[in-house]
Amino acid sequence: MAEIADLRTRSVLPIGTVMLLTDLTARQIRYYEAQGLVKPERNAGNHRTYSLNDVDELLEIRSQMADGFTLADVKRLKHPRHREDSDAEVRKVLRDELLNQSRLNQSPDPGPTIGFRQSH
Amino acid sequence: MAEIADLRTRSVLPIGTVMLLTDLTARQIRYYEAQGLVKPERNAGNHRTYSLNDVDELLEIRSQMADGFTLADVKRLKHPRHREDSDAEVRKVLRDELLNQSRLNQSPDPGPTIGFRQSH
DNA sequence: CGCAACATGTAAGTTTTTCTGACATTTACC
DNA sequence: GGTAAATGTCAGAAAAACTTACATGTTGCG
Fold first, then answer.
1. Cβ of B17 < 7 Å from strand C?
2. Does A118 reside within a domain?
3. Is A113 part of any domain?
């Protein structure tokens, strides 16, 4: 039973499987790749192949998007440009987010639990 | 990170991924299914979908085949008809196997480590 | 308000993968 | 030599994935 560890790093999952595991559309997954957030490999037939680590990253992105972050935010949070200002960076994004959130929460009926920036 | 436990039982892997993880051909995987040894589900497009448990079962089959067992043996070992004779069953198969092996080992140059019943 | 950027949807055309069914080949065994 | 088991291979059809391009809803801002 070595395949489970392999799956963590081994790129064998096609995009359809990743769609099922993440509840993301192929469009979203490819777009996040175009923005440099995931880097799947390709098989001999030029199809994207993902590892379970990729799936986890996509779940993380999905979570942060659901929290109202923008893709640029997610990218910055994942790749802080300098150690020195990474804290400031994070705090800035979080502050912006809080402001954003409070502004959005002024709207009536914010919905069940997670309401903003959820069109689909 | 709930997808890893899901993968144990959730049928999301297409046959191509299973081929990579098991080093079996699609022909072999489908044949083992036809013999009742694995039971993949089907997606909306009628494509087979496998779980990691299925992958493990296939690896087990592959291992036993490499040991010289026949598919019928594998099937019997997995589904003994009665509790009472399951031991006898196992012993019979193992005895047959030993006889088989010693007979085969009379042939000259048995190959590197595992040599018999390995065509590909 | 209006406009630009962001995120996603959708459609068309092509390539790759998977499907079923049939026939061929190899190997082991009586 | 003949039979059964296991796998290979091929053909035609359906599904999945790819790229490119255009459309749409949403957000932030002057």
1. yes
2. no
3. no
Nucleotides on strand C with an atom closer than 7 A to protein CB? 6-10, 15-20, 26-29
Regarding beta strands B41-42 and A41-42, do their DSSP bridges make them parallel or antiparallel, or are they unpaired?
unpaired
Tell me the pLDDT tens digit for each residue of B77-109: 887 766 555 555 566 566 555 555 544 444 333
Do residues B41 and B75 touch, judged by C-beta distance below 8 A? no
- φ/ψ of A41, rounded to 5, equals -85, -175
pLDDT(A105) > 50 = no
Residue to test with chain A: of B6, B9, B20, B48, most A Cβ within 10 A? B20
How crowded is residue B14: how many other Cβ atoms within 10 Å of its Cβ? 19
User: How many domains, chain B?
Assistant: 1
Structural domain contains residue A11 = yes
Q: What is the CATH number of the domain that holds A9?
A: 1.10.1660.10
Nucleotide with C1' nearest the B116 CA: C27
Q: State the angle between helix axes of B52-66 and B71-78 in degrees (0 to 180), rounded to the nearest 10.
A: 130
Instruction: List the single residue in A with minimal CA-CA distance to B16.
Output: A12
In a domain? residue B114: no
pLDDT at residue number B65: 95
- Range of the structural domain that residue B98 is part of: 3-104
Asked whether the beta carbons of B13 and B51 are under 8 A apart, the reply is yes
Task: Tell the residue number behind the tokens 């144990």, with chain if given.
Answer: B8
